[in-house]
Amino acid sequence: MKLRIVFMFIASVLLTGCGTLAGTPAAPPAPTDRAQEISRNQTGSLTQLGRVSVNERGSPMDAERAIIDQANARQAKYYQIIMLAETIMPGVWRAEAILYR
């Protein structure tokens, strides 16, 4: 009986997690003159331009600004940050993003 309860609990936790990760497709915002950040569920109808990565000294916002600058230089309308983390050197942030047209 206890094994069944434990199994039911684990199954319900796993199913809840799957539902949380599944997103419904959404349209990206209207393009502007600068690149805009979008979420994964907004990428379905867009064309991928490539990936960019930066290492920036400062804060996470500095790394994000560097991603935006690169996206604008490559004439991307949208970007999706897929990684933003501090490196082993304190105060140096690494960010990676996918660019979209």
Could you characterize the architecture of this molecule?
The protein is an alpha+beta fold and 101 residues long. It has a single domain, classed as Dodecin subunit-like, CATH 3.30.1660. The protein has helices at 2-21, 60-73; strands spanning 36-37, 48-57, 78-86, 92-100. A 4-stranded mixed β-sheet has the order 1-3-4-2, covered by helices on one side. The radius of gyration is 19 Å and the shape is flat. 15% of the residues are buried. The mean pLDDT is 88.
Keywords:
101 residues, Dodecin subunit-like, 2 helices
In the CATH scheme, what's the topology name? Dodecin subunit-like
Q: How many domain regions?
A: 1
Q: Mind telling me the CATH class?
A: Alpha Beta
Based on CA inertia axes, which overall geometry fits? Answer: flat
What's the architecture, going by CATH?
A: 2-Layer Sandwich
Average pLDDT, to the nearest integer?
Answer: 88
Helix content: 25-40%
Count of extended strands: 4
CATH superfamily: Flavin-binding protein dodecin
Q: Determine the structural class based on helices, strands and strand pairing.
A: alpha+beta
Strand order of the largest sheet: 1-3-4-2
Distance between the termini: 55 Å
Along the chain, the helix and strand elements come as: HEEHEE
